Amino acid sequence: MVSKAKLCVIGILVLGILSCGAAYAFDLPVRLPGTEATAGQGGLPLVLPKAAESLPREIRQGRALCDVTLRSLPEQDAPEAGEVQMGETLDVYAVNVNGKWNAVAADGGAMAYIPASALSLTAPTIQSADNLDPLLTDGGENGYPGAVYNDERYLKLLTEAKKYIGYPYVWGGSTPETSFDCSGYVCWTLNQSGVYETERTDAQGLYNMSGRIEREDARPGDLVFFQGTYDTPNTVTHVAIYVGNGYMLHAGKPIGYGSMETDYWQAHFYAFGRLAG
Predict the structure, then answer these.
(1) I want to staple 112 with a disulfide (CB 3.0 to 4.6 A). Which of 57, 71, 81, 212 is the partner?
(2) Cβ atoms 157, 277 nearer than 8 A
(3) Under CATH, what is the fold of the domain 152-274?
């Protein structure tokens, strides 16, 4: 009997042959059609961008080559989003996200990511745009992975930010030597990644420098601001880096990923902001 490990290695070699050619990337939703979610994050209606209304869409299927953990973001250290068993068939909505992930549907319809090396793909089939559910091509808050996750500016920001996952929260901290508080972490990451140059400031200062954007227009790499997380005269009291799929990367306790969908963060949410770059 051939072991699962050997099957996975064989499958990776097969995938290298099957996946040659053009890479496809699409804007994707947080949830897929057929699930209970019919509105965007926070209850806002989904809006179909006019540019996407007439575009055909290429859809693939994939077969898992081994048992594998799904991730909620296309990153190895992102939160888990479920498990897939060897031989399971999945609908694939984008390939080569970050160069090595495919976007699939997890249990319950939530978007998830599987290593490309663990999935054997069929050739794409074309589905007419006239038959598409708007959820599939929504390009605002609920659609981001392909183009955004392969954006060089965002990848530089994320690469720097991930270096400090696990560092403790330290009030007033602003360097790796001292560790960080929320604004110190964001300021350091912006400067060291080369994405944006800023003096050390607090969450309110970062908000004041940002252009406020609507929730449905937010994309990975934007900043997300919260209010009332501690006693201060400032309106904005916490800042994080938005990474998509309802997650942020921030100086929690410790620094790491956090879900914006918890009751606490939903109650304290203030705004999304974007720094001109």
Answers:
(1) 81
(2) no
(3) endopeptidase fold (from Nostoc punctiforme) (3.90.1720)
